[in-house]
Specification:
- By secondary structure, the chain is an alpha+beta fold.
- It is built from 5 helices and 7 strands; from the N terminus they run βββββββααααα.
- It is elongated and about 75 Å long.
- The protein starts with 5 loop residues before the first strand and ends in a 17-residue tail after the last helix.
Length: 181
């Protein structure tokens, strides 16, 4: 099994200590056991790319999902369009059945990627990571905020931070904490 991270106090701020890297983690940082390193503003480990999504890679992952969505919906459109062309040529039943199956598969994949894109857009808009949204009860810095997200600075500021700011600038909206070092 993996060694559990310990909670330590640095001044009056509770932080995690990574037992794998032997270091105090900045706020919102987690150790990825697959990549064997700590990741700033950890979101998740992506099975598609075999990379961690966090910090500066979060906007790249969102762009990746958007491009995948465009590609899949274009492929779905092309598949359905080719079915219309095929109906004029009297193709074999097996060919038509395979084309319908392909179109259904591409539409299903398009729906799944669109749902994933929506989830990550919501995270960016709320200044949360997937890890924080799905495991809120494990994030001590979210538990102490009375059910509110301490990083939510409003839609515009959240999106500016998501697309522009360095990964280390994950500062609570109240501004009471300094930029983690």
């Amino acid at each position: 099994g993996h060694k559990a991270d310990q909670e330590v106090m640095v001044g009056d701020i509770q932080k995690s200590f990574c037992n794998e890297c032997h270091t105090v983690q900045p706020l919102r940082t987690r150790h990825c056991h697959r990549c064997r390193r700590c990741v700033s503003t950890y979101d998740h480990h992506c099975q598609w790319t075999n990379r961690c999504v966090g910090g500066r890679t979060r906007p790249l992952f969102l762009a990746f999902l958007a491009l995948q969505s465009v590609f899949l919906w274009s492929a779905a459109h092309a598949s359905l369009w080719s079915l219309g062309l095929a109906s004029n040529r009297r193709p074999r039943r097996l060919h038509v059945a395979l084309m319908y199956l392909l179109a259904a598969f591409v539409v299903l994949c398009g729906l799944l990627v669109a749902r994933l894109l929506h989830f990550h857009l919501r995270n960016a808009a709320g200044n949360l990571t997937s890890h924080e949204r799905l495991r809120r009860s494990r994030c001590h810095y979210l538990l102490s905020s009375a059910g509110t997200n301490p990083f939510d600075a409003g839609l515009r500021a959240n999106l500016i931070q998501f697309w522009r700011a360095p990964a280390e600038w994950s500062v609570p909206a109240s501004g009471h904490a300094s930029v983690p070092t």
